[in-house]
Amino acid sequence: MPEMSTSSSNAGVHSWPRQLQLPGQVAAPDGPIDMRMMYVMHHAFRRDLDLFSAAVRNTPVAERATWALLGERWELFAEALHEHHTIEDDGVWPALEQLGTAEDVATLAAMEAEHGEMEPLLEGCAAGFRRLAAHADEDARAALAVRVCAARESLRRHLAHEETDAIAIIQRLLSAEDWARIEEEHAPPVRLRKAVRLVPWAAYGVPREVLDRVFSEPGGRGFRVIWRLTRRRFARRHARAFRFA
Predict the structure, then answer these.
(1) What angle, rounded to 10 degrees, do the helices at 36-58 and 208-215 form?
(2) pLDDT tens digits, residue range 164-215?
(3) C-alpha–C-alpha distance, residues 176 and 207, integer Å
(4) Which intervals hold domain Hemerythrin-like (predicted)?
(5) Domain coverage including residue 71
(6) Residues 6 or more apart in contact with residue 27 via CB below 8 angstroms
(7) Interatomic CA distance for residues 140 and 127, integer angstroms
(8) Nearest to 69 by CA among 77, 138, 153
(9) Residue 212, Cα to own-chain centre: how many angstroms?
(10) Is 95 part of a structural domain of the chain?
């Protein structure tokens, strides 16, 4: 990992970006790094788990086509969450551990442990959706409702912890240049096929003025085009999957 610079030597408070504050978000610590994409992803994670919780409770077990759509949506959600956590575990937390205090390191270890708690919950829910897409099984639906609720509460706690404590560490220890370097080294390239799936998913329900700001980032023009071409199709599938939510 290249040598990091501290935020205090990189920019004054007067030049710090205005941080996003989206529905459900607990905090948005000030600092030199514009965390807009982090908060957009957090919004999508919270949104989906709220919808999944309602859908699992209310979707009739005989609606196998709907359960199949819910299962597909869960796969997209889980893929995005797993990649989000992997970038943090492999790139962000190790960079901070080199610079932080013992208290910072303890917080980062807790972040990684919380990521680990989510993995079995994600797979257990995926198995439940597969079961209900194949069989009308009330017991499977009851078990899935418990698992989705557990995943929702676990992720809510984790995101709140991250937004209040871990992101404050990021803003204190890293510069915007450091952050860009970590993303370049650890975030996989967004190929067209992947962007077509993820862009409308991440953008769904985000206020238009926020999307305009996100799409104004370097490279954001292409994502805007993808969003315009895919948003209506995504909205239709979204409505079918969560029709009982």
Answers:
(1) 140
(2) 999 999 999 999 999 999 999 998 888 899 999 999 999 999 999 999 988 9
(3) 25
(4) 37-165
(5) 34-189
(6) 160, 163, 164, 167, 168
(7) 10
(8) 77
(9) 19
(10) yes
